[in-house]
Amino acid sequence: MKKNLKLEMRNIRKVFPGVVALDNVDFELGEEVHILLGENGAGKSTLVKILSGAYQKTGGQIFLDGKEIEIKNPKHAQDLGIGIIYQEFNLVPHLSAAENIFLGREPSLIPGVLNLKKLYASAQQILNDLGVDIDARTPVKELGVAQQQMVEVAKALSLDAKILIMDEPTSALTEQEIEKLFATIRRLLKKGVSIIYISHRLEELFEIGDRVTILRDGKHIGTFPIKDISKPELIRMMVNRELTEQFPKQKATIGDEILCLQNVNRDGVLRDINFSLYRGEILGISGLLGSGRTELARAIFGADRIDSGNVYVKGKPVKIRGPRGAINLDIGFLTEDRKSQGLVLNLSVKENICLPSVDRFSKMGIVNRKQELEATEHYIKELRIKTPGMFQKVVNLSGGNQQKVIISKWLCTEVDILIFDEPTRGIDVGSKVEIYELMNQLTASGVAIIMISSELPEILGMSDRILVMHQGKITGDFSAEEATQEKILHKALGGN
Amino acid sequence: MKLKEFLIHYGRQFGTLIGLLVLSAILWILTPYFLTVSNLLNIAQQTSINAIIAVGMTFVIITAGIDLSVGSIMAFAGVVLAWAIQSGVPIPLALLIGLAVGLVCGVVNGLLITFGKLPPFISTLGMMSVARGAALLFTQGRPISGFSNSFRFLATGEILYIPTPVIIMIIVYIIAHYVLTHTKLGRYTYAMGGNEEAAVLSGVNVKMYKTIVYGLCGMLSGLAAIILTARLNSAQPIAGIMYELDAIAATVIGGTSLVGGEGTIAGTLIGALIMGVLRNGLNLLGVSSFVQQTVIGSVIIIAVLIDMALKKSKK
Questions:
Q1: CATH architecture assignment, domain A7-241
Q2: ipTM, 2 decimals?
């Protein structure tokens, strides 16, 4: 396996403004499935993005078949035989599988006129070789997720990829589909395609991987043949800190009930949701992608309509009409996707922090700028937001500081209930702890927090109580003491 | 305001301003008459109508929208206003009627966009034709001419040697700048254009504020109609054809991004002045109107190209 080394990356460094994403990382790939393992923010995605030409490395060397290369851009990476399949597919939904596979390289009769016969035939050939049952003429939007992924694989292979990078390929697949994917991977391996496989799911790794490289905080921790290593060892190398250090959870003083949902339904999304939230607590909500976690948050915040059921805020029955209504009831919502939903990237730190509070800062429609500036200054200092100034556009801040801007924005409206959806996604480890400490301060001051997270350690480390969702229903309700990773997963998968 | 804040907010406008000054310097060298008080006032007066429409356009474009109907709305508001005056409606009331026609057309645009969920391009394209047709129907295609001197003073009069349209324009710009920088409406205009979803989730009533913005744009077209009618002593149902493009050009040259979320009123004023100076200079130089069209079009393209190149290099 070590022979026939296809790819070697030596001392790879990548620096983003303010963050060292990769710190002298080594990586090599032979004819194998090489697993890249690490927590969120460990540097896996950065490393493969350098390979796929999406990022330029700051330092280090890359060798392909023994020759040193500089990967200039994604097109160049393709030409070198490096294909990548991202978690989010890059397919055009209205075009057929065949058209997607050959997008930009369509076979033509004369320049500009497609050779449709050849297009469909070649695409079908590739799909058949992959052993998947897809008609090349089917529009991609009519295919299932697993099939769309196969179209992506076919696209990469049509480019003559010798190295295929798969970023979390199984995150949206069912058990059966995963089996099929693995069969395809094995077939590809026989054809001489090497695979870099990124995943969090430890079970899978032992099934499909040959070797594993562990990254942590942008550093190379180790590379091992998968059969020489055990699961606990892998976890220790991935995390390498006690849970208590990582999650500075403080004992909460639980106060009065502040929010109560009774039999809340939203057609096809939420079913019979019942729970109460108390001042001073962090209520963790766990569940798989599509379990209705985010939908629940949006319903509480008035962003989506509730079809039936009762909501009580501070003991009073309420009908929440739109986000404005929720804000008037002192509810705030930190969305999962900061950039597309939480921030106006092109506006300044000040504008973003003050946006939901402009009402409070203005009389007859005229904004009191002095109050705005004072409030902004206060939160920049209090939350230690690292920014050159309050007029800096938020697009230029790091993920952690952007999240602090969003937290400030809600603190500024004086919320009592704060919903965090994936509070630390894409945020580096140091800032994560700061965000957790902020949560502690908030709960200590009597704010109630609902924390939705895909990261079980985060749920277990920070919550006072944990709800688990599955298919729009609450299927589990644990206290922090009784909850374990296994129990939560069991409920999240719909177990009894 | 601190220097740093000032530069962040207005750095882009300095670039455009320098462009305007360079252009003026060239024209001054080519034709000394360019830099005389009477010519400069002339330019300001000729610019005023486009400049006023461009203010509304700036608000609309900052929300990431577009308004193609401003020229037609101006024509429609103009003929209704002229009819009102000639029917003996007192002038102040007639002026309000003119503004109201513009406002109503703009609000309809806004409602179609927010509640009808139409793309701004489509709804205002429709309104462009509807308002034009309404103006033609209303007048049977004939201009309405002949007004009292007190009405015509709005375009031909002077206050302290400054033509009235210029004074109206300056007042509009001061108010618009204040609204955009110091009011809720201004904050929300930027927020809606920068990220509508985030604005909604921050509790901004996007439907209402967008409708207000389009209404405002329509009302400013009504104001432009008043000045134009007074200046020509006639309201023409075919007035203002292609005015939407001049207003968009002034806005974009002034640094407002068509993607939304960015732009200033000061920039738009400079943009409108660049258009006006260019027209005036080409006239003074005796350049034929066919060539003028081509030159002005090229200037728009070059201005935006330079702007994009500068933005890219900053990143």
A1: 3-Layer(aba) Sandwich (3.40)
A2: 0.80
